[in-house]
From TrEMBL:
EC number(s) on file: 4.1.99.3
Gene Ontology terms describing biological process: photoreactive repair
Name by which UniProt lists this protein: Deoxyribodipyrimidine photo-lyase
Record-linked PANTHER family: DEOXYRIBODIPYRIMIDINE PHOTO-LYASE, DEOXYRIBODIPYRIMIDINE PHOTOLYASE
């Protein structure tokens, strides 16, 4: 198997429990049944120990729910878990889902496990779960980092200044990590040892209906969750939309996007699987491949580096560089040419037709092209009463409406609007020396064509 040693960390270095009934895998970050190195390692260990494998998931609900998650996010998550459950059961792996935290279900089910396997995420809430599990579980715990191409600490042992400082490190390292992952056959199916669960996720709509959560922001039709849908979209993109990606990726009206970000956010597809498919694609040229891998690996893993090494990545005073906060503070009293409340922004009620269209796409379909995301964020800074309030507004709107909100990329992109991973530019009102983006940036693509495309997408949502 091609699970690189750098992906594996032993969190509790003891022998597997001799009387364990199964190997337990906490399916938390990587919500998929294939191309999942944590799952494949669990299967390998189970085969070595002559045991079956149980995968588990803790569903946060009500007041203890995942911060800022709403019906839109949970619908996509549950669709993906239903798909993963079916895939796991085809492989003979048991699946248990309960309404509790991931830490609680792992700690409970680990009492009868010979070995516990974790996957890895980088947000503070995830780190908290891992600490809680490591403190409480007495058997062997192994963590496998499978939702980046190059493991974060292998790529860099510090917070990187910008993409230009991380890029050469990743370029030197990534080839051995872009490797196929052949699934081993499980020796023992989990027929009679699967613990009792509280939730059957086979009907995700029924599970969603029984949850206590924010339903104002509802599910979308534009995206269906799950690894099956992710692979279907990727295949179609590489066949029909990949050629010309290098030139078309910054033109929102050109539809030169794979739309993998929601699936990556929920761990429904592996970035390594995508990278392999891109490298092997018959369409496109080296420029297209290079441009896509830049976004998939360099930009995405720069975001992982940021949240991993930044305590308070969602806090203006901690996430935004000193130089940027200083220059923004110096211009904080500048007159705003336009000022809007957060409610007006959310409703897309500004003077800017194109900004309103971007906000509508985000609000009604859960997605916005990256080229528009940057313009969208810069204008919120310009139209807010203070930089700190602008940062908070941008993050709240981002996390509420985007399917891939509450993600390392989201926290990093919002902080980028305010100077993270950037340098000082020409001084301007309101922005100081933080990079400014004007309406002229809309001339780089067919903005009117984009507005029409948004109208079609929103009409399809009903």
């Amino acid at each position: 198997m091609a699970i690189q040693g750098e992906r594996i960390r032993v969190l509790n270095d003891v022998e597997p429990r001799a009387d364990g009934r199964y190997v337990l895998y906490l399916l938390q970050q990587a919500n998929r049944a294939r191309f999942n190195p944590a799952l494949e390692l669990a299967i390998e260990e189970a085969n070595r120990l002559d045991l079956p494998v149980i995968a588990c998931f803790g569903l946060l609900d009500g007041k203890s729910g995942f911060p800022e998650a709403n019906a839109r996010h949970y619908a996509f998550l549950l669709q993906g878990l239903a798909d993963a459950k079916a895939g796991l059961e085809k492989r003979g792996i048991g699946f248990v889902m309960r309404k509790c935290s991931p830490a609680k279900i792992a700690i409970d089910l680990a009492k009868e496990a010979a070995l516990l396997v974790l996957d890895r995420g980088y947000l503070a809430i995830q780190k908290g779960w891992y600490r809680e599990i490591t403190k409480a579980v007495k058997t062997r715990i192994v963590q496998v980092e499978g939702d980046v191409v190059v493991p974060v600490e292998t790529a860099s042992n510090k917070h990187e200044f910008a993409a230009r400082t991380l890029r050469p490190k990743l370029n030197r390292l990534w080839d051995p990590f872009i490797a196929d992952l052949r699934p081993p056959k499980l020796k023992h199916a989990a027929k009679d040892v699967t613990p009792k669960g509280e939730i059957d996720v086979s009907d995700p709509e029924a599970v969603l209906a029984g949850m206590s959560l924010d339903r104002v922001v509802g599910p979308v039709k534009r995206f269906i969750g799950g690894e099956t849908e992710a692979r279907k979209r990727l295949k179609a993109f590489l066949k029909d939309g990949f050629e010309g990606y290098g030139n078309g990726r910054n033109r929102p009206e050109a539809s030169a996007a794979s739309h993998m970000s929601p699936f990556l956010h929920f761990g429904q597809i592996s970035p390594v699987e995508i990278a392999l498919a891109v490298r092997e694609a018959k369409a496109g040229d080296d420029d297209d491949r290079g441009a896509y891998l830049e976004e998939l690996i360099v930009r995405r893993e720069l975001a992982m580096n940021h949240v991993f090494y930044t305590e308070g990545y969602d806090d203006y005073d901690k996430a935004v560089p000193d130089w940027a906060r200083k220059t923004l503070a110096e211009q904080a009293e500048d007159k705003r040419p336009h000022a809007y409340s957060e409610e007006q922004l959310a409703a897309g009620e500004t003077h800017d037709l194109y900004w309103n269209a971007a906000m509508r796409e985000m609000r009604e379909t859960g997605y916005m092209h990256n080229q528009l995301r940057m313009y969208w964020g810069k204008k919120i800074l310009e139209w807010s009463p203070s930089p700190k309030e602008g940062f908070a507004r941008t993050l709240r709107l981002n996390n509420r409406y985007f399917l891939d909100g509450r993600d390392p990329n989201s926290f990093t992109n919002v902080a980028w609007v305010y100077g993270l991973h950037d340098r000082p530019w020409q001084r301007r009102p309101i922005f100081g020396t933080v990079r400014y983006q004007s309406e002229n940036s809309l001339k780089k693509f067919d903005a009117k064509g984009y507005v029409k495309a948004v109208e079609r997408l929103c009409a399809a949502e009903g």
